[in-house]
């Protein structure tokens, strides 16, 4: 499974650029999900922090897409039930299983649960794809088991290419890694097939 994300990191201010992003589901079936370019707000409004709306109607189980919110990449993953089981399997291996020590924004109340997602859409995972060590973008490693740079009992998750931090399928960092905290979960809400990032019942972030 591979992604096709181009990333540029400059020294003082890490920026990124996505051409296309994808990761397919388990079993090596990769589905290309184009970078979302049809948000309702203007580019200028998005950069300033306006919420972004994303059509998730074509996001099949196991698929992932990446969108921009506040100049950062945000992952949207339709986790399979197997991926959710992988989260439970990783519970004892992650440094902060309850996400009690948030990174750069408060954990939304509705994602304070074992899957870090809204209970009525528990398969949908929304997270800011910025490694909590030094800000690189981790890469999806959904396939379980032995593979380069990962332990033989790898349960599936994400690997940061910069210094090797690993995260589970709920964005929780594994123990004894350079990254100190779990990935941020932005405020979000779901209406029908539309995901809104940066806004929830309490208002805009
Ligand atoms: S930036 Fe991710 S491990 Fe260092």
Automatic annotation (TrEMBL):
Membrane topology classification: Single-pass membrane protein
Additional free-text comment from the UniProt record: The Rieske protein is a high potential 2Fe-2S protein.
Subcellular location(s) of the protein: Cell membrane
Region named Disordered: 89-109
Family: Belongs to the Rieske iron-sulfur protein family.
Function: Component of the ubiquinol-cytochrome c reductase complex (complex III or cytochrome b-c1 complex), which is a respiratory chain that generates an electrochemical potential coupled to ATP synthesis.
Principal location class: membrane
EC annotation from Swiss-Prot or TrEMBL: 7.1.1.8
Protein name (database record): Ubiquinol-cytochrome c reductase iron-sulfur subunit
Membrane-spanning ranges: 16-36
PROSITE patterns found in the cross-reference section: RIESKE (PS51296), TAT (PS51318)
Cofactor note: Binds 1 [2Fe-2S] cluster per subunit.
A Pfam family the protein falls into: UCR_Fe-S_N
Encoding gene per record: petA
Catalytic reaction list: a quinol + 2 Fe(III)-[cytochrome c](out) = a quinone + 2 Fe(II)-[cytochrome c](out) + 2 H(+)(out)
């Amino acid at each position: 499974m591979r992604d096709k994300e181009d990333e540029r990191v400059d020294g003082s201010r890490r920026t990124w650029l996505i051409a296309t992003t994808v990761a397919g589901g388990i079993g090596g079936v990769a589905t290309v999900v184009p970078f979302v370019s049809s948000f309702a707000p203007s580019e200028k409004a998005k950069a300033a922090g306006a919420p972004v709306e994303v059509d998730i109607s074509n996001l099949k189980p196991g698929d992932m897409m990446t969108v921009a919110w506040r100049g950062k990449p945000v992952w949207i993953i339709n986790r399979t039930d197997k991926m959710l089981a992988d989260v439970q399997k990783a519970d004892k291996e992650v440094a902060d299983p309850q996400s009690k020590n948030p990174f750069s924004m408060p954990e939304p109340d509705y994602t304070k649960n074992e899957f870090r997602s809204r209970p009525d859409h528990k398969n949908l995972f929304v997270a800011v794809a910025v490694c909590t060590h030094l800000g690189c973008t981790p890469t999806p490693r959904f396939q379980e088991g032995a593979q380069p740079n990962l332990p033989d009992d790898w349960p599936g998750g994400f690997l940061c290419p910069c210094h090797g931090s690993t995260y589970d399928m709920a964005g929780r960092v594994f123990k004894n890694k350079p990254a100190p905290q779990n990935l941020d979960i932005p405020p979000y809400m779901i209406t029908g097939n539309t995901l809104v990032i940066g806004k929830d019942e309490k208002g805009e972030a």
